[in-house]
Design brief:
The complex is a heterodimer of chains A (488) and B (136). Chain A is built from 20 helices and eight strands. Chain A is mainly alpha-helical and 488 residues long. Chain A has a domain of 335 residues. In chain A, the strands form four sheets. In chain A, strands 1-2 form a two-stranded antiparallel ribbon. A two-stranded antiparallel sheet of chain A has the order 3-4. A two-stranded antiparallel ribbon of chain A has the order 5-6. In chain A, a hairpin with a 7-residue loop joins strand 1 and strand 2. In chain A, helix 1 packs across helix 5. Chain A is globular. Chain B is mainly α. Chain B is 40% helix and 3% strand. Chain B has a two-stranded antiparallel ribbon. Chain B is globular and about 45 Å long. The chains are: A mainly alpha (488), B mainly alpha (136). At the A-B interface, strand 8 and helix 9 of A face helix 2 and strand 2 of B.
Chain lengths: 488, 136
């Protein structure tokens, strides 16, 4: 799978779950670990609370600052020079800030530290590819604002704030519709087991984990730990040890993880070596992108970086994998056996399709065989192997299951991982009536436009149902066809 | 196809592991034992215990430790194919000599920029340095 999907999955995770402190670091469930997202997959991770609630992430539309509609972006840097006028806006916006504590990370007389990423969700600046993906969505939103504005009747009674806010909402809803279309038809099609995808892809899937047949009201939505701290951690296994970023640069994972305003503020904004050429992250016109690692119980060594993922408890264990497994232990999730039994009761046909799920003795044997044979450095004892085979941690089992898929080892999730992910992602999409109605994207966009304007101001938007199409359209409306380094 | 290199994630831990092997004193500040490994598996086992997170390509089947003596010149010759591979990589547009990340910390925090015209010079200097250096 092209590597761009690894980071689209991370973006989706940010759009589903946001807590003040990771469960693994907090050490137990409490106020700070509660999920603050109440409207899943509505791009809160990009738009925050909108121009009024989160003005710092929006650019000024007028000198008197009576309206904001476009997301802020920042100019890229060219080599060691300061970003000059003329350098394109291809990074997220970043700024310096004076601290009341007196701390200054700038290098006096050389470089000002841009410690503040002006984004709605600080995790969207976790690393260079993540911030570039955020900038891609921001470029598309800003282009949609331009498309709408060109067709507005600017002499209307609400020519300033009201008109601008309407334009913003229309563009945001359009981008959300495009995003949902991609999640449904591109991302999920790639990561979900084909048989499970067929069960959920339609307009009215028969959800297992849904008490009210009509779905959840906005605000009532909650995410199961089996998704957030179990199945959806699979994206970590897809991370590569290095990335060809563009024609000019290849960066290893350690460099990539370090590139954020928090970790490397004096080397911000991102320079030309970090400007993602999107045909290297998605298959576009026959391009050969960086491919993600196959899904399995192995992570790239760079995710053990002790600067990015330092030790936080008495075990002194560093790295992302320890955090994932500890978080899974603290969350108090259903065991693998219990999940399989419950799904088997409600949807026996979904479990019956997989011997690994349907036959416990076979499952335990397969786990035991792998744990015994695989180079498990750290020397698992016989007792530990027996315990893990009989009661595997859910995030580990999801990776193991993906690796066991016949003729598609690690190419997509197995049935259990696919059911958990589908219940949440397709369930969240079903919360949005516009996304769940089965209409085409063109029909949805027309419906969005009608909410705000008498004419269809979105009719020039093509049918975008893949990330490749999103990138191509963004290249066109942001006029980046001739960008250096290449955008497409 | 470029030759895959060993890649260290946590350089300080790796350095402390080397110091531990060299002196017999535990620099990792943990309760593990670190005798000099005799097989690649033992080597990887100790990397895991020390949390070095080093990527060791599958082509490595043996491990050899050389204990240098003060009165012996030890010239560690890199395989000719590795030099050829590095030179091939450096010829590519935009390619530069990769410096480990801790160099940045030592030089003001700025990303080190090796000018295009200097990259083969730096390559030669680094090869020479690491071939005879005691690194202690």
């Amino acid at each position: 799978m092209p590597s761009g999907y690894t980071y689209l999955l991370q973006f989706v995770a940010h759009d589903l779950v946001h807590s003040a402190i990771p469960l693994s670091v907090a050490g137990g469930l409490g106020g700070g670990t509660a999920n603050a997202r109440r409207t899943p997959l509505r791009l809160e991770t990009l738009f925050g609370n909108g121009p009024v609630g989160s003005p710092h992430i929006y650019a000024l539309d007028a000198p008197n600052d009576d309206r904001r509609t476009k997301l802020r972006l920042g100019r890229m840097r060219w080599k060691e020079n300061e970003p000059a006028t003329g350098c394109p806006f291809r990074d997220i916006a970043r700024s310096a800030a004076e601290n009341v504590t007196g701390i200054d990370r700038s290098i006096t007389g050389v470089r000002v530290a841009l410690t503040e990423a002006l984004v709605a969700d600080p995790r969207n600046d976790d690393h260079a590819v993540m911030s570039q993906l955020t900038a891609l969505f921001a470029l598309l939103h800003n282009g949609l604002v331009d498309i709408i504005r060109r067709q507005e009747d600017s002499a209307g009674p609400n020519a300033r704030f009201g008109a601008a806010y309407k334009r913003f909402l229309c563009a945001r809803e359009a981008l959300t519709a495009i995003y949902h279309n991609i999640l449904r038809k591109d991302l999920m099609r790639r990561v979900i087991h084909p048989a499970i995808y067929r069960v959920y892809e339609g307009p009215n899937p028969d959800f297992i984990d849904r008490s009210a047949p009509e779905g959840f009201a906005i605000g009532d939505w909650e995410i199961p730990f089996e998704f957030s701290h179990g199945a959806f951690r699979f994206g970590h296994a897809m991370v590569r040890h290095e990335y060809r970023i563009n024609d000019l640069s290849l960066h290893d994972l350690n460099n990539t993880l370090e590139k954020s305003s928090a970790n490397d503020p004096v080397n911000m904004p991102l320079d030309e070596t970090w400007m993602v050429q999107w045909s290297r992250f998605f298959e576009i016109n026959g391009s050969r992108p960086n491919f993600s690692r196959r899904i399995g119980p192995y992570l790239s060594d760079g995710l053990g970086n002790d600067q990015i993922f330092p030790a936080f408890d008495e075990t002194e264990r560093v790295g992302l994998l320890y955090r994932d497994l500890l978080g899974a232990g603290l969350a108090g999730m259903w065991s693998v056996d219990a999940l399989i039994d419950e799904i088997s009761n409600r949807r026996p046909q979904l479990i019956a399709m997989s011997r690994l799920l349907a036959d416990r003795a076979y499952r335990v044997g397969m786990l035991r065989e792998w744990l015994t044979a695989a180079p498990a450095y750290g020397a698992l004892s016989a007792d530990e192997i027996e315990t893990l085979s009989n009661d595997p941690p859910l995030p580990f089992f999801i990776l193991f299951e993906a690796m066991q898929q016949s003729q598609a080892e690690g190419m997509h999730l197995g049935p259990l991982g696919s059911i958990i992910v589908s219940e949440v992602i397709f369930g969240a999409l079903a919360c949005d009536p516009r996304s769940a109605d089965g209409n085409s994207l063109a029909e949805r966009l027309a419906s969005i436009s009608r909410e705000f304007y008498p004419a269809n101001v979105l009719q020039e938007i093509p049918d975008i149902s893949s990330m490749a199409q999103l990138v191509e359209f963004t290249t066109e409306i942001a006029e980046l066809q001739q960008a250096v380094p290449a955008f497409l | 196809m470029a030759i895959e290199r060993m890649q260290v994630t946590n350089h300080e831990r790796w350095g402390n592991l080397v110091k531990t092997w060299s002196t017999g004193k535990n620099y990792l500040d943990d309760d593990n034992e670190y005798p000099i490994p005799t097989t690649v598996d033992e080597f990887k086992e100790q990397l895991a215990k020390a949390q070095v997170f080093m990527t060791v390509p599958d082509r490595f089947k043996k491990v050899k430790f050389i204990e240098q003596e003060m009165d012996t010149i030890v010239v560690r010759l890199p395989p000719a194919v590795m030099i050829a591979d590095s030179e091939e990589n450096l010829k590519k547009p935009g390619a530069t000599y990769p410096l480990p990340p801790f160099y940045k910390r030592l030089f003001n925090g700025l990303d080190p920029v090796i000018p295009e015209s200097d990259k083969f010079r730096v390559h030669a200097e680094r090869v020479g340095d690491y071939t005879i250096s005691y690194c202690a």
